[in-house]
């Protein structure tokens, strides 16, 4: 089959070419300056580059076949390299705004594409310029995934293997980077925007995008198979209590109790595993803080989206290339005590800062909220003990437990179940000490007895245990009324059936 026949076959969706023949067509077309009409090379609804086809509905961790080769890949790579030659030194020019940089790049790209003399329509040429601009100035194949509201997490194992999380399930996508160099350029662009760096001397980094999405990148030699990138997206519009109720994360009764607990200045610890939604829940709980209070937030990478006006946001800083200038979470917690806070919200405690936070809770800074990695409320207490020991203070274990039991009032446990839904499974009250042990009492716990339905969705729900917690009296002392029935399962269930 000669070149013209192959070009005709690409335009004819009923004739299929072998992958090797498609590669020959792509290379030959670029070499001759005659690239086939891309819109007719595949289904009309497909974009010019990176396929956006939805993954097959299948079990979690299902895989899909890679996308077909892009006949314009060579053109895009060549144009991108030429653009770097022309404006590479200006990509990091702080005097240029993002809009000015995009205008400059688009002007240069128009000249580069015109010089290729491609047989393309004006609309195709404009889309090609947009795609190359996205690869050089944006995030390449990640652009479409970042704009997809159904995607909650993006995982790049290597340049040719991208997974996403949709509805709590992992699926492989057809999106691909052209190679390791393009993936490295995207990673470097992300970290440069927040003043971080990544190279062989510092091969891993935590950063964030403009919308607050959390980014973790790791490159060779630590990443053996090539650079890896993980992006945990956050909703452009922060979730509300109604959203979490509709998702099945919480019940309305638990929302009422937690709302009252936050307004009554109780210290709350949100516990859960990785990816269970701790930060999202922390965001929702912080929305209950009255707007006339001064809030200090402390995080490794800014993620919280508080809606109040009187908020001071603090972010830790890693060491520079000389190993100096590091500002830790612990230092920020100590400094926040001098900033006259009404509330201190720590994104996550994972080290010695836990001791400073406990001391703050015990010395007049009530109403603090934080998160910790743990699989149960009891495990959360054990983890807090370990974190306090990391502070380097030679404290006896009983003294640490007394600090924890007097500082923390409520532990909210959140879990991601195998149906992909994140649910609050425990609302536990910290009672105090009995001998050497911290005592806990569940006010609400998740009932698993109903099992799963035919679609694999968990039938159970968060139920009150029937025990009225002691913190209900503290809530009442603040003039906040909670109905007694909210803690009684039989009465609450009967009222639900009547409704």
Describe the overall structure.
There is one protein chain. The chain has 499 residues and is α/β, with parallel strands linked by helices. It is elongated and about 80 Å long. It is built from 16 helices and 15 strands. The longest helix is centred in the N-terminal third of the chain and has 19 residues. Strands 9-8-10-11-7-12-13-14-15 form a 9-stranded mixed sheet, sandwiched between helices. The chain has a 6-stranded antiparallel sheet with strand order 3-2-1-6-5-4. It has 2 domains: 99 residues, Beta-Lactamase, CATH 3.30.450.370; 258 residues, Rossmann fold (3-Layer(aba) Sandwich). The N terminus and C terminus are likely disordered.
Gap between N and C termini: 72 Å
Q: Mean pLDDT, rounded to whole units?
A: 79
- Large-scale geometry: elongated
Spans where pLDDT lies below 50 across 5 or more residues: 1-63, 492-499
CATH class of the largest domain: Alpha Beta
Determine the CATH topology of the largest domain. Rossmann fold
- Helix fraction, binned, reads 25-40%
Rg result: 27 Å
Largest sheet: 9 strands, mixed
Number of domains: 2
Strand content: 15-25%
- In spatial order, strands of the major sheet run 9-8-10-11-7-12-13-14-15
CATH homologous superfamily descriptor of the largest domain: P-loop containing nucleotide triphosphate hydrolases
Category from helices, strands and their pairing: alpha/beta
In DSSP terms, counting alpha (H) and pi (I) runs of 4 or more, how many helices?
A: 16
Strand runs, count: 15
Just name the CATH architecture of the largest domain: 3-Layer(aba) Sandwich
């Amino acid at each position: 089959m000669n070149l013209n026949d192959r070009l005709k076959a690409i335009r004819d969706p009923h004739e299929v070419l072998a992958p090797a023949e498609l590669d020959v067509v792509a290379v030959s077309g670029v070499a001759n300056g005659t690239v086939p009409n891309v819109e007719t090379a595949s289904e009309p609804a497909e974009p010019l580059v990176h396929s956006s086809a939805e993954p097959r509905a299948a079990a979690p961790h299902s895989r899909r076949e890679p996308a077909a080769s892009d006949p314009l890949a060579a053109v895009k790579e060549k144009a991108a390299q030429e653009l770097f030659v022309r404006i590479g030194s200006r990509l990091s020019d702080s005097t240029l705004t993002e809009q000015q940089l995009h205008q400059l790049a688009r002007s240069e790209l128009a000249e580069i594409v015109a010089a290729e003399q491609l047989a393309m329509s004006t609309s195709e040429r404009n889309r090609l310029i947009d795609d190359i601009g996205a690869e050089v100035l944006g995030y390449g194949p990640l652009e479409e995934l970042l704009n997809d509201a159904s995607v909650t997490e993006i995982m790049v194992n290597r340049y040719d293997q991208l997974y996403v999380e949709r509805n709590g399930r992992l699926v492989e996508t057809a999106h691909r980077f052209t190679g390791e160099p393009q993936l490295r350029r995207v990673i470097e662009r992300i970290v440069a925007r927040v003043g971080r760096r990544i190279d062989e001397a510092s091969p891993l980094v935590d950063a964030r995008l403009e919308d607050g999405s959390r980014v973790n990148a790791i490159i060779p030699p630590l990443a053996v198979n090539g650079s890896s990138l993980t992006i945990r997206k956050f909703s452009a519009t922060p979730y509300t209590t109604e959203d979490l109720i509709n998702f099945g994360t919480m019940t309305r009764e638990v929302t009422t109790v937690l709302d009252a607990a936050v307004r009554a200045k109780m210290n709350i610890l949100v516990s859960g595993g990785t990816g269970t939604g701790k930060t999202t829940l922390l965001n929702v709980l912080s929305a209950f803080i009255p707007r006339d209070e001064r809030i200090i937030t402390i995080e490794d990478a800014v993620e919280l989206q508080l809606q109040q006006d009187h908020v001071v946001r603090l972010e830790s800083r890693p060491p520079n290339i000389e190993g100096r200038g590091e500002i830790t979470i612990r230092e920020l917690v100590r400094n926040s005590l001098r900033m006259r806070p009404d509330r201190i919200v720590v994104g996550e405690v994972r080290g010695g800062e836990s001791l400073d936070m406990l001391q703050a809770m015990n010395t007049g800074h009530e109403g603090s909220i934080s998160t910790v990695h743990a699989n149960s409320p009891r495990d959360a207490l054990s983890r807090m003990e370990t974190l306090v020991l990391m502070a380097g203070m030679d404290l006896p274990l009983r003294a640490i437990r007394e600090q924890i039991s007097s500082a923390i009032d409520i532990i909210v446990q959140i879990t991601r179940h195998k149906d992909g839904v994140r649910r609050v499974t425990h609302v536990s009250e910290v009672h105090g000490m009995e001998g050497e042990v911290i005592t806990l009492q569940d006010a609400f716990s998740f009932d698993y007895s109903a099992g799963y339905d035919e679609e694999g969705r968990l039938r159970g729900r968060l139920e009150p245990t029937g025990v009225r917690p002691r913190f209900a009296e503290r809530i009442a002392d603040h003039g906040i009324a909670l109905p007694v029935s909210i803690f009684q399962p039989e009465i609450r269930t009967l009222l639900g059936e009547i409704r």
